What we know:
With 429 residues, this protein is mostly beta strands. The chain has 6 helices and 27 strands. The protein is globular and about 65 Å long. InterPro entries: DUF3443.
Amino acid sequence: xxxxxIGVNLKGWLQAALAVTLLATLAACGGGGDSGGxxxxxLNGGSLPPSPTQQPIAPNASNTVPIxxxxxxxxxxxxxxxxxxxxxPGSTTNCQTIDNIxxxxxxxxxxxxxxxxxxxxxxxxxxxxxxxxxxxxxxxxADGYTWGTVxxxxxxxxxxxxxxxxxxxxxxxxxxSTVPSRGCGxxxxxxxxxxxxxxxxxxxxxxxxxxxxxxxDPSTAATYSNYFACPGGxxxxxxxxPIVQQVANPVANFAADNNxxxxxxxxxxxxxxxxxxxxxxxxxxxxxxxxxxxxxxxTTDAYGDMNNSVFNGTTVQAFLDSGSNGYxxxxxxxxxxxxxxxxxxxxxxxxxxxxxxxxLNKTTASASIGIVSAATLFGNTSNFAFNNLAGQIGGSTSFxxxxxxxxxxxxxxxxxxxxxGGQSPYVAF
Length: 429
């Protein structure tokens, strides 16, 4: 659902607002969606590629946490959710576990809607300061933006805890009147649980912080920084922020198992499922349950992008993004939906498309995806997990392999450790 706009690097996420509004009114029924897709399925007269068949491991180890796709807090489709525990710095008692945090491999850092936190905890999370004022962030996504202060907290996910308090964003804790008139406001404000479709966003992609040198270097921060100094809590202006004060990927700050994550989702039927239960595994090659085995490894830029990939003869920026609820790309040969499903593709028969993924290490692989009319899929109003939902993305230079790509796969994200002489960022599956 969320792909963060970092500096000049806008990656796409699209959500058909009318479709979401429709689905938000529906009550899900039925159990888990762990029955596999068919090896080859015919739908509406067309055919789909074979479905991947990997199953997630049980989320019962200290370096694992369950992932749930279902109706969630507001009935948005294909939203993978996890639980996160937040504690006031230095406290083991002033803590709160927040469920329904969206797992997003296309962004970096933890963002929590302020209204989900109890008053005691929220009041104990210190607001960061910069340039003589409160530090706030406008995290800009393709569909909207989150505005709120940057605070610090200790974060626990599963059995893993950050070694110290880290910066995170509290969404919606500043009045809308404080939103800067310049440098923020792409799309709609996503300040509430209803706006966001989740209680927060957990960005666990390849970057250790959400902006890096673009926001720490005054020469680039003046134009591209996500961060704002707010003297007296108002009059917020763009500012440079040291990297240590930027919203941080919690995984990179764990004591162990901090070099990456594995997103493991079960297969789902080609017509969709009411729910799907997967596992988020912390660390790669650090324990017996997280080996990098039998996977193709693609080194990427700092943000997990494979910038030399090819679709329909055009070089595209491809990325594997659990936070996008569909595949999003440009293909004029695919009919777009009308009315309630605007933004999604509605081909008259099932379709297959292939993209050639190319890593910086020259690893090359073809990935085939299936596309079924969104109108057909949404006809079963109890389903919230879909492996062949696709839609239009602005421009023709991006290819977003969203959550449908993850079903039946183990997808790996190696966190960028190159600043300290460690591994380069990579994705693998």
